[in-house]
């Protein structure tokens, strides 16, 4: 395998793997058959692509001991290893070695294999300089002698003999051999040919060794599963013999696939009682006749040109192709192109093939003297590989035994014989994008792959007939509602019914309801009723789906209307229920609130009544009774007054109202006031004097306080003797604290003071 532009692990050869099963269907062995290894990749790598994986694995995974044995220093570069800095998952040398050990390849055999591969790489660094005289040998480049010496040592051949055979070719003239110096280009071709033949033979030996390890004896297996993995359809900017052979193989496989598919279609149609004549398809037989037909074809002309003992002429071959195959519609030429070519119309598209170098590749010439040199190699594996190889030496007429095209065609014919005797199943692998990114699909790349693997062509074949096949029960289960909701009557489908006749009648009624305005001929082109299936075309399927969609929309609209009606009724009922609940709750809350207010009002009234009664009793207790009015006529100062700090006023016939804090007085005495103080009551009297302001206003005394007005103190109405001043606070808080002389006294003053003015 190798890393290409489209795939990091692309198989550069076709393979057919046969998995061998015993009578119990258990895997007991396997075998591998390969087709057309891309040997040219060893010496010529396409742009931006790499060589085979094994070379990079050896360069990156070899140990120091192995590098010393292989003459492989760390800093050495090779002309045949491009993109060496690119690191991919497949560059695992350890896994390859483990696989070899698992297959039974011992260390000595591994050493021989790796020395041969490194020798091929060293051979690629050998380059030649042109000689001034054509009769002289080409010289090696100044740096090539060391590379040639290493290559000869690794391949186990003499260095001088290898040097000579790369620059000189042997021509046979009668019974004598003539040595002819090669040109610089011919030396490069012989070097590349040597590398390719060594790699190709080593690959074939490895496949044979693997088959000998895993293949079971014929008596142990009776059945097999064959897995065929070949190249896909290829169309590059420059296409040559490799692409022609690959596309030829794909044409053969596509023809087999189409024949198998059409055969399966025909068998199904016949078993269902349908006619097969309406499917018209032209296969790719004309393209295959162009490539492999007898007596004249592209391959026959190539083989004929390859067997001639002369230098190939691409322009002359183009003229022959145009003359012999011009009547075939699958081959054309671009008249404006200067490069000799021909264009073949394949099933997947047109491909232009370059004629230059095609004949030489078809010959695949291996100089016999190089084969003889390898047969004398000291490398036991290389000696074993080439010792039994028949040397393909042209005879006196210059004819070669086998060409690349003939060998590939024969192996492909054997493969087709195997495919025709088995039941094939096809798996198509589509790569979504070339960048290996997830969830990313490139439309152009996917379409190209679908065309290359024949899917598009298969779709065209399927569309030519009836691509949609539905069993009766499934058909009625999906489209039975069309008859149910149509005017032609109701359809009764029993999902458990086993009678095919009943199902056929129901299908006929359904199709009749759908195609009641369609003619019989047009109906036959749209739909066919088989014995167990209904065969439909895409327009008929679209018609059924449209009718089903309309009925489903109508039913969905009806369901939506019923659901909305139900929701509105339910919403209205809930709203009415909520209104009743809210009204009941509000009435209950109002009743509770009013009851609470009534209880509170009753409590307030009772408390107020008690408070009024208390105030009334306190007021009555503050008033002077009859015993208080009986006093002496002469105001004599009592000793207790001095001790208590009271004020004794001279009596007066007319009472004088006095306002003040902390005392409220109702006095009836003369204008002159006598105040007696004692030493013990001095502080109280100072308080009294500072709290009273006694201005003289036209012979009338008016007492005002400069303290806070907190209410009326003790009052005695119309006293005749001494007036007692009490400092205790009175409960009569709502009395008028400043009664005016000219205004009437109201409130509690009216009760307590009784009008005296």
UniProtKB/TrEMBL annotation:
InterPro entries (alphabetical): Kinesin_motor_dom_sf, Myosin_head_motor_dom-like, P-loop_NTPase
UniProt keyword annotations, A-Z: Actin-binding, ATP-binding, Motor protein, Myosin, Nucleotide-binding
Domain Myosin motor: 1-549
A Pfam family assignment: Myosin_head
Entries under SUPFAM superfamilies matching the protein: P-loop containing nucleoside triphosphate hydrolases (SSF52540)
Residue ranges of the region described as Actin-binding: 412-434
Signal peptide: none
UniProt family annotation: Belongs to the TRAFAC class myosin-kinesin ATPase superfamily. Myosin family.
Protein name, as recorded: Myosin motor domain-containing protein
Organism whose genome encodes this protein: Ataeniobius toweri
């Amino acid at each position: 395998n190798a890393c290409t532009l489209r795939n990091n692990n692309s198989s550069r050869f076709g393979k057919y793997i046969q998995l061998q099963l015993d009578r119990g269907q258990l895997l007991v062995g396997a075998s591998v058959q390969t087709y057309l290894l891309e040997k040219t990749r060893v010496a010529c790598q396409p742009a931006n692509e790499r060589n085979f994986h094994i070379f990079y694995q050896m360069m990156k995974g070899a140990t120091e001991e192995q590098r010393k044995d292989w003459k492989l220093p760390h800093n050495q570069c090779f002309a045949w290893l491009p993109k060496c800095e690119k690191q991919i998952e497949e560059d695992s040398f350890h896994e390859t070695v483990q696989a070899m050990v698992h297959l039974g390849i011992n260390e000595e055999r591994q050493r021989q294999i790796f020395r041969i591969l490194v020798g091929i790489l060293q051979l690629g660094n050998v380059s030649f300089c042109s000689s001034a005289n054509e009769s002289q040998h080409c010289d090696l480049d100044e740096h090539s002698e060391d590379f040639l010496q290493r290559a000869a040592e690794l391949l186990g051949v003499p260095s001088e003999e290898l040097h000579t055979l790369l620059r000189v070719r042997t021509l046979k003239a009668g019974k004598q051999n003539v040595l002819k110096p090669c040109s610089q280009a011919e030396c490069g071709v012989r070097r590349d040919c040597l590398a390719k033949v060594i790699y190709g033979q080593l690959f074939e030996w490895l496949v044979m060794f693997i088959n000998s390890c895993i293949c079971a004896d014929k008596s142990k297996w009776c059945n097999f599963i064959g897995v065929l993995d070949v190249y896909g359809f290829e169309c590059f900017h420059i296409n040559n013999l490799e692409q022609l052979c690959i596309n030829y193989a794909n044409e053969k496989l596509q023809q087999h696939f189409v024949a198998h598919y059409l055969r399966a279609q025909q068998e199904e149609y016949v078993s269902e009682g349908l006619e097969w004549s309406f499917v018209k398809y032209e296969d790719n037989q004309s393209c295959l006749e162009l490539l492999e037909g007898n007596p004249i074809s592209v391959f026959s002309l190539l083989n004929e040109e390859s067997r001639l003992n002369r230098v190939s002429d691409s322009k002359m071959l183009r003229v022959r192709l145009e003359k012999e195959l011009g009547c075939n519609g699958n081959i054309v030429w671009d008249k404006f192109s200067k490069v000799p070519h021909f264009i073949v119309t394949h099933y997947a598209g047109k491909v232009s093939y370059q004629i230059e170098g095609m004949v030489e590749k078809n010959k695949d010439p291996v100089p016999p003297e190089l084969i003889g040199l390898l047969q004398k190699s000291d490398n036991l594996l290389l000696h074993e590989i080439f010792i039994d190889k028949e040397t393909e030496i042209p005879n006196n007429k210059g004819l070669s035994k086998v060409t690349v095209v003939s060998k590939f065609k024969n192996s492909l014919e054997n493969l087709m014989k195997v495919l025709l005797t088995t039941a094939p199943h096809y798996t198509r692998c589509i790569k979504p994008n070339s960048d290996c990114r997830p969830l990313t699909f490139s439309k152009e790349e996917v379409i190209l792959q679908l065309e290359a693997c024949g899917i598009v062509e298969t779709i065209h074949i399927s569309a030519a007939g009836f691509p949609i096949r539905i069993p009766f029960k499934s058909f009625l289960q999906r489209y039975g509602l069309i008859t149910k909701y149509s005017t032609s009557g109701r359809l009764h489908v029993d999902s458990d019914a086993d009678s095919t006749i009943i199902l056929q009648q129901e299908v006929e009624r359904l199709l009749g309801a759908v195609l009641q305005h369609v003619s019989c001929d047009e109906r036959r082109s749209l739909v066919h009723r088989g014995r167990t299936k209904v065969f439909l075309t895409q327009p008929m399927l679209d018609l059924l789906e449209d009718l089903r969609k309309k009925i489903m929309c109508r039913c969905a609209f009806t369901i939506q209307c019923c659901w909305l009606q139900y929701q509105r009724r339910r919403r209205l009922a809930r709203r009415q229920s909520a209104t009743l609940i809210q009204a009941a709750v509000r009435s209950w809350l109002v009743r509770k609130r009013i009851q609470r207010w009534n209880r509170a009002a009753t409590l307030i009234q009772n408390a107020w009544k008690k408070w009024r009664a208390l105030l009334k009793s306190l007021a009555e207790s503050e008033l002077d009774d009859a015993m208080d009015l009986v006093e002496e006529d002469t105001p004599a100062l009592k000793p207790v007054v001095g001790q208590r700090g009271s004020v004794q006023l001279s009596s007066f016939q007319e009472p004088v109202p006095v306002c003040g804090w902390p005392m409220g007085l109702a006095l009836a005495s003369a204008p002159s006031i006598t105040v007696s103080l004692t030493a013990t009551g001095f502080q109280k009297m100072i308080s009294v004097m500072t709290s009273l302001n006694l201005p003289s206003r036209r012979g009338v005394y008016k007492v005002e306080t400069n303290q806070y007005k907190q209410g009326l103190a003790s009052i005695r109405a119309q006293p005749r003797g001494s007036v007692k001043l009490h400092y205790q606070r009175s409960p009569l808080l709502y009395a008028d604290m400043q009664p005016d002389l000219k205004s009437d006294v109201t409130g509690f003053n009216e009760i307590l003071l009784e009008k005296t003015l």
